[in-house]
């Protein structure tokens, strides 16, 4: 951190030039937490019957500098009424928590089932974010 003196106001000025930070990450520093999410593969043929789940895998990673960080996997689906499960469990409104070590990747299975009302739904967006807010 560079520290200088502002003669006009008589105060110190702090300028971050190096380090790591989170919650939020400060400009000029490396990220302590850097969540990553990637589509890995579909686990079935491209033809899915209406009452069968669509199953695919995603890879969750921690590209940050911290030894490990806890992230929350959430899903946004707008007005649709799809069922979304991760490794067989429903995603709650607060998400599913995963602690991922530095530079590690974990693979999770996502299953999407049709809701009772619609055959055509809005896209689902998966988010992996820091739990610190």
What would you say this structure looks like, in words?
- The chain contains no helices and twelve strands.
- With 133 residues, it is mainly β.
- It has two domains: 31 residues, no CATH class; 98 residues, Immunoglobulin-like (Sandwich), CATH 2.60.40.
- It has a five-stranded antiparallel β-sheet, with no helix packed on it. The chain has a three-stranded antiparallel β-sheet with strand order 10-7-12, with no helix packed on it. It has a two-stranded antiparallel ribbon with strand order 1-2.
The residue fraction in helices comes out at under 10%
Cα Rg: 21 Å
Oligomeric assembly: single chain
| N-to-C span | 25 Å
**CATH fold name of the largest domain:** Immunoglobulin-like
Strand content: over 45%
Instruction: Please identify the top-level CATH class of the largest domain.
Output: Mainly Beta
Helix and strand pattern: EEEEEEEEEEEE
Please tell me the total number of domains.
Answer: 2
* Second CATH tier, the architecture of the largest domain: Sandwich
Strand order of the largest sheet: 5-6-11-8-9
Beta-strand segment tally: 12
**How would you state the average pLDDT, rounded?**
84
Helix vs. strand class = mainly beta
Low-confidence region ranges = none
Describe the largest sheet. Answer: 5 strands, antiparallel
Number of H- or I-type helical stretches: 0
Summarize the topology.
Elements: E1 2-6, E2 11-15, E3 20-21, E4 30-31, E5 35-42, E6 54-62, E7 68-76, E8 83-86, E9 89-90, E10 96-101, E11 105-113, E12 125-130
Parallel strand pairs: 3-4
Antiparallel strand pairs: 1-2, 5-6, 6-11, 7-10, 7-12, 8-9, 8-11
